[in-house]
Amino acid sequence: MHPVGRSSALPQVAPCSQAGAQPLFDCETGTGCEAGTSGGADCNVNDVRDVCDIICNGAPDCNANRVPDECDVMYATSTDVNGNGIPDECESVGDLNCDGVTDFADINPFVLFLSNFAAWQAEFPGCDPANGDINGDGTYGQWSFDDINPFVQLLAGG
Ligand SMILES: [Ca+2]
Ligand SMILES: [Ca+2]
Ligand SMILES: [Ca+2]
Ligand SMILES: [Ca+2]
């Protein structure tokens, strides 16, 4: 065995994509924004690094995860049950008690919303009924059963 020392040390190879690492770029010149620069991800394959899509080109990133929202939807890291291209966590879709979140506490209000719309309105005055248009087809409320499955999907995946 030869002694362990500097001579036997392997060169350090930087991982091509390191969590948290955001190499520098320049929005004005585009320097550092090319896809593949320092391993920067380009999830929408437009040859521009995602971080530049967002910071330089104004690509929506409503959930502030540094991933363009179109990729959140495309790769299903976010649900988009109403199919409008906006991650559902950024919207009030499914928030039928208007407490700001969509969760299991919305189940009973949703059932009321479907079965007795007037009673739902009376119980949650000012709550936007469009929140209950879960599938984004423009109809909601009384007997709009097409919203049930996407509501379940929303609770399961969101
Ligand atoms: Ca891109
Ligand atoms: Ca995002
Ligand atoms: Ca959506
Ligand atoms: Ca809610």
Element-by-element helix/strand order: HHHHH
- Flag low-confidence runs: 1-20
Helical residues, percent: 10-25%
Hetero compounds? calcium ion
Assign the structural class, choosing from mainly alpha, mainly beta, alpha/beta, alpha+beta, or little secondary structure: mainly alpha
Structure annotation, total helices = 5
Task: For the structure shown, list the relevant keywords.
158 residues, mainly alpha, 24% helix, elongated, binds calcium ion
SSE blueprint and pairings:
Elements: H1 50-55, H2 69-74, H3 107-115, H4 117-123, H5 148-157
Question: Would you write up a description of this structure?
Answer:
- The protein is mostly helical and 158 residues long.
- Among the domains are: 24-78, no CATH class; 104-157, no CATH class.
- It has helices at residues 50-55, 69-74, 107-115, 117-123, 148-157.
- It is elongated and about 60 Å long.
- 28% of the residues are buried.
- Mean pLDDT is 85; it is low at 1-20.
- The chain binds calcium ion (4 copies).
- One calcium ion binds next to helix 1.
